[in-house]
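Researcher: I'd like a structural prediction for the single chain below. Treat it as a standalone chain; there are no partners to consider.
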Amino acid sequence: MREGFGPTIATPGHMGVDFETRVDFARLRDYRLARARAALEASDFGSLLLFDFYNIRYVSGTWVGGALGDKMTRYCLLTRGGEPVVWDFGSAARHHKLFAPWLEPDNCRAGMLGLRGAIAPRAGLFASAVTEIVGLLRDAGVADQPVGVDIVELPFLFELQGAGIEVRDAQQTMLDARVIKSPDEITLLAQAAAMVDGVYHDVFEALKPGVRENQIVALVNQRLYEMGSDQVEAVNAVSGERCNPHPHNFTDRIIRPGDQAFFDIIHSYNGYRTCYYRTLSVGSATAPQRDAYTQARAWMDASIDLVKPGVGTDEIARAWPAATDFGFADEMAAFGLQFGHGLGLGLHERPIISRLNSLSDPIELAEGMVFALETYCPASDGVSAARIEEEVVVTKDGPAILTRFPAQDLMIAHEY
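Model: Treating it as a single chain, here is the predicted structure.
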């Protein structure tokens, strides 16, 4: 059984101070832009045109979330040898000019495309945006080279093609750029995890018969925002007979004595995310529940023990059971249960570790990768299940664990 958290990852205070070295945000922005520029130089593209919010933040150091997070409104252009140009929602562009001095003022531009189709293409916003972009490509001398695009609305793609622009996939390029985290990124990931450590203590104290799953979700949201979270993306709360099969959501179910319950807390601090499962029992635990937890923990420890530079993700995936070994027809049906995924500005970055993809397309682990490992074991009672997740940093000295709320043994809240 694994003990301890491995090499130390610093979790300094969140505020900037003059008497300690903490996160250096200027250094963070420089690192990310340098990684993106290096990826662009190594590609066949003349420029990157980015719509993915996480890629925009990575390159430009700007962020507008909330209701605009999925509207495909913001975009960013990076040309070879050029500075990032950001088109943003209305007054956000003016805000960047005032408060984002690392961007050239003229490169902070108001932009609007269509709010995922709410403004029809016939209004001409896509066409005018492409005309502006093509002009910038010509000014940079890269108009005759392919443009790497990460994600895109079809009307925008058609306008680019109509303007004679060759479009290629840049999401692969950007995910490769983002895979190695800097010390500042790792510190932010550790700070985000530390916030959830504390919230799980609150959950443990609140978890008792009569409490509803959605009340736990409300508690988690309140505590995280009080602690400084910038986005609580999701909280899964799964209890009792809902544990098996795993529904990946929450309801208003009332928690009862003897229930097993697991939770996944997904939030971000300064953009850097957590994905953090814990399983608890309420009042008491049965032998099948304890056995399932013990097995899920064993699978977790076996995979963590393999983590070091040079190891293939296929080796980690083989430490987990095949889908047919725990009641599923194939790996597609069981995807996401025995699972690993990169963490950073996005929830699912590289590497993705699973028997579904890693056995045929392994990735070699490298120092500076950060990912979450997840295991799931259904109990023999047919309704309960255990779910555990640990966030891991690949260091030259082995795995460092960011997630510290106790999980070696099944914890029982309000034990009778």
